[in-house]
Amino acid sequence: MLLLIWKVRNKLVFDNKQPSLWRVLCSIKSWVHFAAPYFPGSSKGLLDVNILKEFGVQPIIQQVRIPRMVRWLSPTHSWIKLNTNGLAKGNPGAAACGGIFRISGGRYIGGYCQNLGFQNAFYSELMAVIIGVEFAYQFGWHTLWLECDSMGVIEGLRSSTFKPPWPLRVHWHNCLSRLNSMQFYCSHIHREGNSVADCLANLGLAFLSLCWLPTPPMEIFSKLRNDALGVLHYR
Fold it and tell me: Which pTM was predicted?
């Protein structure tokens, strides 16, 4: 198309030959109609749609993505909620995990984090659950609502045929044994609603061993408050 315009311009400048605007427009429309299927893209508004239709091109309407609202939900009075998260910087890479226990109203009753060395993200997610369940069992918290942002972990907890990574086989079976003695429920939450556990997992990178946190570290104060207030996050 640019080549066509350049040729018409040269004829006007060097040959003093007036172009036929109608023929130029027809040529441009033909070129656009031929080339359009080979170029990705989509129309973003009514003006784009009308221009494309003038060139004989069927517009592809851009899909509008509707933001999804995500909110952390507080447990009822009889339940203790455990949110967990694991990470690996590089997957595999420097790995850590963390978790937080809260009761009704979002009140903090404990948390933990641990450096896991060089691992992948799924290993870290599983370890976060294993450690959290063990803490709950030791403290006698036997009405446990577990929530994390890994669908793989949730499916593993719900499946009778799930096989964890070999180094975690014994730990995982012990974890399931603990859960069988509890009133237990698990659910998935999007990452935007799991920010406190994510923050604790990042803190775990700085620790050499498992660390129990009886009081909330200052890094999670604002996130704890937002969760307790039911602040919405958008995905």
Answer: 0.74
